[in-house]
Amino acid sequence: MVLTSLELVFKSAEKSKHLVLPKKRIITSDASSGSSSNSNKNMLEQQSAGLANPVKKGCSQFAAVLPNDQTELIRQWIKEDTPTFDVGGYVVGGKQEQAKLLMKSTGVICGVPWVYSTFEGVLGCQVEWVGPSEGEHIEVKEGEKILLAYVYGPARNILLGERLILNIMARASGLATRSKAASDIAKQVKWHGSVAGTRKVTPGFRNVEKYAMLVGGAATHRHDLSQMVMLKDNHIWSSGSITKAVKKARSACGFSSKIEVECGSLDDAEEAASAGAEVVMLDNMDPSVLKANAKILKHRYPALIVEASGNIRPHTLAPYLSPDVDVVSMSLQQGYGAVDFSLKIQPNASPRSKM
Counting CB atoms within 10 angstroms of each CB, which of 47, 64, 210, 257 has the fewest? Predict the structure, then answer.
């Protein structure tokens, strides 16, 4: 069998994943001392405690919920970016190099697990995280660059992962930043409920976007069609009624899954609750109407989970928060900005020794 050049890179990377790191280095910024965090200390304590799935330095605690093996998807992303020739890779070759991962704009750091999975898990490089940790909101001044990590390995392999990692971190950090802004609004008024995203994720990017919501402090809502039953207007219209749809759904999902019904009126919500739905979504209602309906529902069905949704954005969130509303969902993953990062090879550095 003849292997493509990219397959040869993957095969070679499998043989050279582990390199010897310098013993010690404490650097957090190219322009300043940067920010410090107790999260790294907590993560090291978790690792020393012998947890089954310890997270790596720089990662959020939520990294432990990610699939253990993401190499297949990462390889697909790299192949998509290198479908034929890699002339740039040919130019730099396999010379051992050192690169700096830099943060260049303000936001919440997110996407670190994919830095490790891509460079260490697929491309045979090594990552040394030295800067602020995932989940920290970092203020970056104009012209400043915050040093996050060093990447060591063959030049071609570093550059194969460069754009992929920068794209992931830019988007994940942007979404985490937006999620934090929304969840902070709820915290400021001491609201008891959850600010949640939706299932309106980018195909192929689901885990990254759902993870970014967690890192930013928001709830993920359901991950996919299999996680929770949600009966929306199309299900109701096709089934004939809310009651019929709920009963049929229950016959298939049993007791172990919640059923949520999208409702456009108080009557719809009462029918859904009476039929056995655990969650009702009050959709596209004016905040005052929504609060009044939620109060009635909570009085009649105390165990019912009430969700508010429909054209809600972080800047319009506050009026929907109420003691009778448990969840406010919005499309956090649509319309978020990107955070700027770069990865720069250090031409005058001696790989793995001089920093």
Answer: 47
Least confident of 67-71, 251-255, 289-293: 67-71
Question: d(Cα 134, Cα 240) in Å, to the nearest integer?
Answer: 47
Q: How far is CA 282 from CA 3, 63, 104, 307, 322, in A?
A: 55, 32, 40, 6, 13
Q: Which pLDDT tens digit goes with each residue over 179-221?
A: 999 999 999 999 999 999 998 889 989 999 999 999 999 999 9
Q: Is 298 marked active-site?
A: no
- Check: CB of residue 112 under 8 Å from CB of residue 59: yes
Same domain, yes or no, for 22 and 160?
yes
Please name the helix (run of DSSP H) or strand (run of DSSP E) that holds residue 247, with its range, or none: helix 242-253
Domain CATH code at residue 231: 3.20.20.70
Predicted model pTM: 0.84
Q: Which of 41, 79, 187, 200 is catalytic?
A: 200
Q: Are residues 97 and 37 in the same domain?
A: yes
